[in-house]
Design brief:
With 187 residues, this protein is an alpha+beta fold. The protein is 30% helix and 30% strand. The strands form two sheets. The chain has a six-stranded antiparallel beta sheet, with helices on one face.
Length: 187
């Protein structure tokens, strides 16, 4: 009978590598978690401060990066002919300059079942609105991206799961509002 020792020892040495890399994937926070200096500030209690140092598209991008921690968001886009609603998040934001169109921020799910685009050059103001829902006994938490003409380009609202908001999302909403303000001018 042949011995398995020559094969067994190398396998034992490789086992930790195999289990950590392939069988048991480790948690890695999204890249946006370390890209914003406001993330640690918000997590530590928010407050005014560095948000005033940013202006224009840089302020808008930072707001969107920090909004990625709100979790699931219901995106609503309305025009004269239709209304589209979809649930996604501000995570996985990528910005790209498109000739003759401007800079687009893209938000996409990992599996690409959700994708939304926002033209950053057209956003003049961002409003964070808390209002009573038309149906039900709860508030809506809405972020509106508004053009220079006062037209809503995109609305996004905290998404309720099982008839309730996630408590962490509500806390993060308040911190974002405290740092960036209820209404912020971008242009």
């Amino acid at each position: 009978m042949k011995t398995l020792a020559p094969y067994f020892i190398p396998l034992l040495l490789l086992l930790p590598l195999l289990t950590s890399s392939f069988i048991l994937p480790s948690f890695r926070p999204s890249s946006s978690s370390s890209s914003s200096p406001f993330v640690s500030r918000l997590a530590a209690g928010g407050g005014e401060g560095n948000a005033a140092d940013l202006a224009g598209k840089e302020r808008l991008k930072r707001f969107l990066e920090d909004a990625s921690f709100l979790g699931n968001i219901r995106f609503v886009c309305m025009n004269d002919g239709g209304i589209l609603e979809a649930v996604g998040s501000f995570e996985n934001m990528a910005c790209k300059e498109i000739p003759e169109r401007g800079e687009l921020a893209t938000f996409a799910s990992d599996d690409k079942t959700f994708e939304a685009h926002l033209n950053l050059d057209r956003v003049a103001r961002v409003d964070m609105i808390q209002s009573k829902a038309k149906k039900g006994d709860h508030d809506n938490y809405v972020i509106r991206f508004v053009s220079g003409e006062g037209k809503t380009l995109l609305s996004s609202m905290l998404h309720r799961e099982a008839e309730a908001y996630d408590e962490d999302a509500l806390e993060w909403w308040d911190k974002l509002k405290g740092v960036f303000g209820e209404s912020q001018q971008i242009q």
